[in-house]
């Protein structure tokens, strides 16, 4: 019998007011969540912060509309006045900035579903939503929240930004704290890296951007939407292992390519390219290389010497409690544009909120021990799944296609990370609904966590014939499940999986 229990629909994972995940215990719930079925959404107390507006942010927005006399308007709160101005420009008329007398920043406009959708998508891609802790503090100040309704958290004794930067620099090993720049999320780190690199390359006639491998959906969105001329400047190579095709692309277009963005390993197929060969090509052709190592973590892999910039979600692994969203950009001090990056990044990244950085500082020191535990557990779970007759496809960092490339950058042969993706040879709903593991988006926390990743990230593709063809062309099965191993004992995780896979 599994020691895990089903978590009710919509309950936060972990059970914190600022938990970054939320339970979707059945496939019907997943589909209802994606289709905005009120029968499902009414139970969602929260969700991943870049996709679901936190209840505190909603309440703060409603309070501002009342006190500013803006009834009948929509409001979108942002992480800074700079973010609000970018959002206002993106939306155009009739969007307007909140008045300077308001204690928070954002934009308002007459209620309009299309504009609201555009606002949410822009903030999601750029990672510029208001922090839930900042919203909480605002509500406490204005009397909309009482002290017993707020989150009680472990404090941090010291200067939190320096603490976090110091830890991150040590995780990367080739950087100093002055090479580390904090962001409101991993996505804000990636978006800012892209903008700064694009600005540096544009005067050189380089405007094209290459996506190598199937990447996280908002990274794809940035490249598809925010290059100078997306129809011409967005390039995609799905096969991360095809160096010959990459070389040919650089021969044909290398003088026009500004940068290459990839994940190492990729999400969710956990594929690792020959990073040294790719970096050498980029240097030869003057192409900037931006790497996202979040899936495995810089605790496990050494990528900075190959990159110009590394954009990393600190929400994963370094915030193992799963209750804070933050990110970082790390500059390769040996990179050709290192000085320019250090100058420009502070003006491109969003300011982090003091309580968020303090919360991260209170737990980042636990990250190496958490990762060590995860690295001990993952191989046992992989071996169970690899030999189970109901597992049709299985991906992890040491998959035969990636093993050699991954071990070249692994900090040790045992540094394999938490991520396992697989496809079951049975109805996915039968397996998923029976499974007692925590089920929701995100990864890299003390809690083991599983989700039907393609349904959550690319529901539009799952639900159309053309979309499924697009997924298939990139080697993605629509019913792929993404499992992130946590700190629980391996035997408990395996027993839970076995229970759900049984006849």
UniProtKB/TrEMBL annotation:
<keyword id="KW-0663">Pyridoxal phosphate</keyword>
<dbReference type="GO" id="GO:0030170">
    <property type="term" value="F:pyridoxal phosphate binding"/>
</dbReference>
<dbReference type="InterPro" id="IPR051750">
    <property type="entry name" value="Trans-sulfuration_enzymes"/>
</dbReference>
<dbReference type="Pfam" id="PF01053">
    <property type="entry name" value="Cys_Met_Meta_PP"/>
</dbReference>
<dbReference type="InterPro" id="IPR000277">
    <property type="entry name" value="Cys/Met-Metab_PyrdxlP-dep_enz"/>
</dbReference>
<dbReference type="InterPro" id="IPR015421">
    <property type="entry name" value="PyrdxlP-dep_Trfase_major"/>
</dbReference>
<keyword id="KW-0808">Transferase</keyword>
<protein>
    <submittedName>
        <fullName>PLP-dependent transferase</fullName>
    </submittedName>
</protein>
<dbReference type="GO" id="GO:0003962">
    <property type="term" value="F:cystathionine gamma-synthase activity"/>
</dbReference>
<dbReference type="InterPro" id="IPR015422">
    <property type="entry name" value="PyrdxlP-dep_Trfase_small"/>
</dbReference>
<comment type="similarity">
    <text>Belongs to the trans-sulfuration enzymes family.</text>
</comment>
<dbReference type="GO" id="GO:0019346">
    <property type="term" value="P:transsulfuration"/>
</dbReference>
<dbReference type="InterPro" id="IPR015424">
    <property type="entry name" value="PyrdxlP-dep_Trfase"/>
</dbReference>
């Amino acid at each position: 019998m599994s020691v895990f229990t089903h978590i009710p629909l919509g309950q936060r994972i972990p059970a914190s007011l600022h938990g970054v995940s939320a339970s979707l215990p059945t496939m019907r719930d997943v589909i209802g969540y994606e289709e905005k079925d009120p029968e499902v959404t009414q139970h969602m107390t929260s969700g991943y912060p870049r996709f679901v507006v936190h209840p505190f942010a909603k309440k703060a927005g409603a309070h501002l509309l009342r006190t500013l006399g803006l009834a009948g308007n929509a409001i979108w709160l942002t992480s800074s006045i700079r973010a609000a101005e970018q959002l206002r420009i993106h939306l155009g008329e009739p969007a307007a900035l909140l008045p300077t007398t308001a204690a928070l920043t954002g934009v308002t406009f007459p209620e309009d579903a299309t504009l609201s959708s555009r606002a949410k998508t822009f903030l999601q891609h750029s990672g510029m939503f208001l922090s839930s802790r900042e919203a909480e503090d605002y509500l406490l100040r204005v009397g909309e929240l009482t002290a017993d309704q707020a989150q009680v958290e472990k404090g941090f004794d010291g200067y939190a930004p320096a603490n976090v930067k110091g830890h991150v620099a040590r995780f990367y090993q080739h950087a100093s704290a002055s090479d580390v720049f904090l962001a409101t999320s991993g996505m804000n780190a990636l978006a800012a890296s892209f903008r700064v690199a694009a600005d540096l390359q544009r005067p050189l006639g380089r405007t094209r951007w290459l996506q190598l491998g199937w990447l996280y959906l908002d990274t794809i969105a940035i490249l598809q939407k925010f290059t100078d001329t997306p129809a011409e400047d967005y390039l995609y190579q799905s096969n991360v292992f095809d160096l010959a095709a990459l070389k040919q692309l650089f021969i044909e277009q290398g003088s026009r390519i500004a940068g290459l963005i990839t994940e190492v390993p990729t999400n969710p197929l956990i594929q690792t390219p020959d990073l040294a060969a790719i970096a050498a090509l980029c240097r030869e052709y003057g192409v900037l290389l931006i790497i996202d190592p979040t899936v495995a973590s810089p605790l496990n892999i050494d990528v900075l010497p190959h990159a110009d910039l590394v954009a990393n979600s600190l929400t994963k692994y370094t915030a193992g409690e799963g209750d804070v969203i933050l990110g970082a950009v790390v500059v390769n001090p040996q990179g050709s544009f290192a000085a320019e990056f250090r100058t420009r990044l502070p003006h491109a990244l969003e300011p982090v909120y003091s309580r968020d950085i303090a919360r991260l500082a209170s737990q980042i020191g636990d990250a190496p021990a958490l990762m060590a535990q995860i690295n001990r557990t993952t191989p046992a779970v992989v071996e169970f799944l690899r030999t189970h007759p109901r597992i049709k496809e299985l991906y992890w960092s040491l998959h035969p296609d990636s093993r050699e490339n991954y071990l070249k950058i692994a900090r040790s042969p045992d540094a394999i990370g938490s991520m396992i993706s697989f496809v079951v040879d049975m109805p996915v709903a039968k397996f998923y609904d029976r499974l007692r593991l925590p089920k929701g988006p995100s990864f890299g926390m003390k809690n083991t966590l599983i989700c039907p990743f393609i349904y959550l990230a690319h529901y539009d593709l799952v639900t159309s014939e053309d979309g499924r063809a697009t997924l298939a062309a990139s080697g993605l099965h629509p019913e792929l499940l993404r499992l992130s191993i946590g700190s629980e004992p391996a035997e408990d995780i395996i027993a839970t999986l076995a229970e759900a896979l049984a006849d």
